[in-house]
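Page 47, continued from p. 46.
Same chain as before, 80 aa.
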Amino acid sequence: MKEARKQGMEALMIGGDGLLSDVFMKMGGESVEGSMLYAGFAADEARAGEKTKKFIEAYKAGNNGVLPICSLPRVMMQLC
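Result:
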């Protein structure tokens, strides 16, 4: 992404969960700021950690008890 920016590319960078790493941020520096990524999410309450359980509970409370289920187009639409 550094090279793309250096060449004048100003487009929004979007990628998958491979971008979800410290290495991406360290190597890309300022050139990756504002990038978007998408990642899968499964609302498995039985296996969820404490933070995820809190998120699921809050989501259900605000959505008539419905579990958070997102498809990629819906997630991208919410991010844009």
